[in-house]
Each structure stands twice: as structure tokens, then as C-alpha cells.
Amino acid sequence: MFGLFACATPALAHQALLSLQHRAQEGIALATANTHIEFKQSRGLLSSTPPDFFPKAPHALGQVLGTHHDFYADSNLAIAFCGNSHNTKTPAKSIAKALEQAKSPNLESKLKEVIPTLKGAYAFLLLTPDNLIAMRDPFGYRPLFVGDLKGGYALASESSVLQALEAQNIQEVPPATLYTKAGTTLLAPPTPSPCVFEAIYFSQPGSFMFNQSVYALRAKLGQALAKEHPLKADMVVPIPSSGTLAALAYAKELNLDFAPLLSLNPYVGRSFIESTQESRERKARQKFSLVAEPIKGKDIILIDDSLVRGTTSKVVVQMLKEAGARRIHLLLSAPPILAPCFWGIDIPAENELLSVQGGEAEAIGAASVGFLSLNALKAVIHAPFCQNCFIPTHKDCHV
């Protein structure tokens, strides 16, 4: 999601949504404000929006739509919500309704009345003709950044979005903080526990998380993976794109050939964030093409960011086998995922998690599967983060 206050143009709104497209692909929502709120919504990718989708207005609020992305707008306000609420399946609309019913005299005091009732992991932006307001939960699960732009200010889910807009003085909005044009207000004691998958999977390499660039962080994960799993093979093949930097660092650390033989179809979205298993499998088959010639008779180290259901890994391993690979070892730059996520990441029920049952290598057809340890991940992040999905909750878990 993004917000622009006193600096919006159609070109900037378009650029912001384009820079967010990797986070969700089901639709686009856009609200603009001058004397009142105007709202538009389009299904599918940004490229599918009609030419007149971006009206001229000084303020704008937009969001790419998908799982755990919600948007609400009426003539008075618009809300973009990212994350998960335990209160409702339509959190943006619920916040708007709660504000309407709040007894406080103005919007900011109404928010201070309503926000303590929200339960879950979230960041949200609220736009009126007079203000653009941001709120991040006390744990800071979902990222949020702010920067100065052309006499106004901009907010976005990733710092790279603000960089693309050429914003200045980019800073992270602290957890438990209400941000308005007048300044910041701390609404509760912050207890930071951001989602580590923002850095491992979701965010662009140019974004910043945990006081470092995602680019540098993923490279460190690859170096740590090489120390824990120093395998021998003819080449290291990354699963693009979130596995590429870890694979490159792994290959450099062990002096192995780095072979980016898989390429992504840019017109097929990310399979993990699809809402059904059928659509995930279809996209996993569609989105990769392989340079097959160098594969025949070779031992391959295949590197990806993580293993959830195993959908993508199974498809890619099969492609490598069909190209004649002799042995395929899969390495992941994250620990095994052993519990579902209830905080706004689409990590499903335990019975869908491949690492809960074990036998990952057999399930995806690889010779072996290796994971980065949780201790190594902690050393790379070097800051508090949510670890719930890496900790088994079921007594029959094989780990």
C-alpha cells in the first residue's frame, strides 16, 4: 500500500503501485482526495487498468489487492489495510465503522479510541481530504515507511517504493505509532517482532529491513547456508527471484559455478500469494522456463528462499530431471516452517506444511533437502523478529 499527501500526481500514483505489484496481483484499489474521496478499483494487474484510472488530485491512497490486503472507501475517507485482524475478515471497513461510532470529537482522537481495540498484525493508512494518517501495530509485524516528497509526504509498505518516487529523508514508522501530518504519537509500549518473511521473500532487494538492505541480508543468508551445508556439485542454480541472491552468495563462498538457468515469465505472478492450491500449482508450472542444455548429467544445488507446501520446488525439480540432471540437492535460506501463521502471511494449516510431516526430499523428488538453522537466521537478522512459524506446535512434528 502507499499514500501520497499534498504531492500526488497520476504518474506518482502509477509508479507507487508498479513498485508494489510484486506483493499482490489480484487487483488494484485507488482513492484520491481533493474536497472529497473518489474511489476506483480494477481486477488483475496494474497493466490492466484503463487509461483514465488515475485522476488528478493532491492526495492519493492505493493498494495492490490479494490475500491479507483490504481496502475500504466512502465519500469521506479511505483505508488501506495490510495484515490480519482477529476481529473481522473485512478490517478496513470495520475500522471505518468503529470510527463512525466513536464518541471522540475529531479523527485523531477517534483513532486513539479505536486502535486499542484492534487485535492482530497490521499496518494501515487512512486518507481524508485533510490528512493522511498511518498506524502500525505494537509488534511492527507489517512494515511501513515514510518520506518527504515535493512539499508533502509519502508512505509505503516498502522503502524501495519511496526510493522509486524519489522521496527524501526515508524512515521507518516505528511500531505502535500513529503518524499524521502533525507528527507522531506513540499509542502503546512497542514490542518489536517484525515478520522475517518480509525480508526473506516479499520485499524488493532495494528495500531496507532490520537496519540493512534486503540485498545484503539475503547475501548473508547464502553465506550462512554455505557454512552449514557445504555441498559439492557441478553448479548452483537459483529459483528466482527471492532465492537468487542467497544462491549467488552460496556459490561464491564455496567457489562453485553459479548458473541462473531458470527465468521467470514476467506476466505470471508469484504462486505463494495465490489464494488456492490449484492456482498456486498452475502458476508454478507457468512461470518458469529453463535453459536445459547445461543440465544433462550434472549434479545440481538448487537454492530457494523457503519451503512451505513444496509446490514450486517440486515443479522445478521435475523440470531439472527432465533436462537430464543427475542429482538435485535443494537448499533453503530459511529454517523449516513448522507452524501456521496467524499474523497475515499465507502460511497455511499444519497439514499443508511439508516440513511438519517430514520426508521433504522424497515429496519433491530431490536427493536431499537442507535448511538454514534458526540460530544462523538470528545471527544474520541481528534484531528481534517473529519466530512463531519456525517453532513446532504439534507433538507429532518430525523435527
Q: Label the structural class.
A: alpha+beta
Strand content: 25-35%
Terminal Cα span: 37 Å
Strand order of the largest sheet: 3-2-4-1-10-9-11
Largest sheet: 7 strands, antiparallel
Q: Would you tell me the overall average pLDDT?
A: 93
What is the percent of helical residues? Answer: 25-40%
The low-pLDDT segments are 395-399
State the shape. Answer: elongated
Treating each run of at least 4 consecutive H or I residues as one helix, how many helices?
Answer: 12
* Integer-rounded radius of gyration: 22 Å
Question: In total, how many beta strands?
Answer: 21
Descriptors:
399 residues, alpha+beta, 6-stranded antiparallel β-sheet, 27% strand
Folded structure, characterized:
With 399 residues, the chain is α+β, with helices and mostly antiparallel strands. The chain is 27% helix and 27% strand. The protein is built from twelve helices and 21 strands. The protein has helices at residues 10-20, 91-101, 107-114, 159-164, 197-202, 214-228, 244-254, 277-287, 311-322, 354-357, 360-364, 374-381, and strands spanning 2-5, 27-33, 37-43, 59-65, 69-73, 78-85, 120-128, 131-136, 145-149, 152-156, 168-172, 177-180, 183-186, 208-209, 212-213, 235-238, 262-264, 288-290, 299-304, 327-332, 368-371. The protein has a seven-stranded antiparallel β-sheet. The chain has a six-stranded antiparallel β-sheet with strand order 5-6-7-8-12-13. Helix 6 (214-228) packs antiparallel against helix 12. The longest helix is centred in the middle third of the chain and has 15 residues, at 214-228. The two termini are 37 Å apart.
